[in-house]
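Trying the structure run again after the queue cleared.
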Amino acid sequence: MGLLSWVVFGLVTGAIARFFVPASGVYGLVVTTVLGVVGALVGGFIGAQLGIGAIDGFDLRSIAIAVGGSIVLLLGYRAVGRR
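Done. Tokens:
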């Protein structure tokens, strides 16, 4: 995937992750995109370690893995931010 694809992918997955995590705060478009891209990297790493698979393209499985990683990242950010 190219750079523009990763940005669009990050925007989509970051928005979906923020939808699933209530009271996740007010973030802008850039923060949501970065959250999605970094979450996709985290989710891809976790998925590869568990044997589920990596992020190969813009398909449903890759989106699910990336959203899962974004949710883990968002919950971790909230847990650290409370302290």
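The chain has three helices and no strands. Worth checking whether this holds up in the mutant runs.
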